[in-house]
Write a structure and sequence with these properties.
Structural class: mainly alpha
Helix content: 40-55%
Shape: elongated
Number of strands: 3
Number of helices: 14
Distance between the termini: 101 Å
Largest sheet: 3 strands, mixed
């Protein structure tokens, strides 16, 4: 699929690095069968031939026609070839292309317009005036926002949940990465980093290398490693949701690498996410405890809490002492009488 020679033993030694990818492949097979039941007769090798037809980077119609004409040893209908093409593109590119009956995920299907090519040749991807394509429309290289925000070390996925009350929803759809949903209460975060690494090493991938590199940097920004070890919060999430084994092994970003100007593809979403995080006010004791974004206010609040607790403590002691003293006085009077 990626035109790479992979050592099977090395793949097995990476803690089932591609288990999350094959889980998604299984789901796409099931959803595709809901749309075209005949797809159950397609073999895995024939599926790979469908992926190969996409590497011409042509339009969906051209890929379907090529699949019908040359790729498969059997005659298939145009509808089946279309479903197989959508499934192959969704699996290979980690996108959600086409609508599949029974899909209850948060993925937003991408429209692949008639005549629109999948991508352009690698030599043309970084040049100015790149021709229109599905990849360019999905991942525009020029941000629309010129706003400048700071991305401090505290800007992490764990703090988005603990402080901002923003729920992290993991996705295998690259187009939904860093997308806020449900009135900005849920954040979609892409986790299939092992597949991104394969795309980066593959010369046949239609994804620009600059897009892949920036995506990995956004993941490192939100899931920073700690002392050379994977992010502990993400490791708990990985076990809970069966995420990619390499979700937080990318290098930790330094101060200059966290500058918003270093991001182009994902800049607009990062700016919106940071502003949403900054505007979020703590609503629970736990959020108040973890919210140290404004150091002075955080320190003043907890000093006030400490003073209140100390005052309450000594007030209780004084009250108890008064009660004991009164009881002792009453008992002494009864003794005299």
């Amino acid at each position: 699929m990626f035109d790479l020679k992979l050592d099977v033993l090395s793949v097995q030694a990476t803690d089932n690095a591609y288990q999350a990818f094959f889980s998604r492949y299984h789901v796409l097979c099931f959803l595709s069968a809901n749309k075209s039941p005949e797809i159950e007769n397609i073999t895995h090798m024939e599926f790979l031939q469908a992926v190969h037809s996409l590497k011409t980077l042509a339009s969906r119609e051209s890929s379907v026609a090529l699949l019908q004409r040359n790729a498969l040893p059997r005659i298939i209908s145009e509808d089946l070839a279309g479903t197989l093409t959508d499934m192959a593109a969704s699996t290979w590119l980690m996108l959600s292309i086409g609508k599949f009956p029974g899909d209850i995920s948060y993925d937003e299907p991408l429209p692949w317009d008639t005549g629109l090519p999948l991508s352009v040749l690698p030599k043309d991807r970084e040049a100015p005036g790149v021709p229109d394509s599905l990849i360019k429309r999905t991942f525009p290289p020029e941000p629309t926002s010129k706003d400048v925000v700071k991305l401090p070390q505290s800007f992490t996925a764990a703090n988005l949940e603990k402080i901002g009350g923003i729920e992290i929803r993991w996705t295998s759809n690259l187009a939904d990465h860093l997308l806020l949903r449900d009135d900005d209460t849920k954040l979609m975060l892409f986790h299939q980093v092992s597949i991104l690494a394969l795309h980066f090493a593959s010369e046949s991938s239609p994804l620009p290398k600059s897009l892949i590199d920036e995506t990995l940097r956004t993941i490192s920004l939100l899931l920073p490693p700690r002392l050379g070890e994977p992010n502990p919060w993400s490791q708990v999430e990985r076990q809970r949701y069966k995420l990619d084994a390499h979700i937080s092994v990318y290098k930790r970003l330094n101060g200059s690498e966290r500058q918003i100007n270093r991001f182009t593809y994902w800049r607009d979403r990062l700016v919106l996410l940071k502003r949403t995080f900054d505007d979020a006010e703590p609503r629970t004791i736990s959020q108040l405890y973890h919210d140290d974004r404004k150091k002075t206010q955080w320190f003043t609040f907890w000093v006030a809490v400490l003073v209140f607790i100390i005052t309450l403590f000594f007030g209780v002691i004084q009250s108890v002492a008064s009660i004991i003293q009164a009881w002792a006085s009453v008992k002494a009077l009864h003794s005299k009488s």
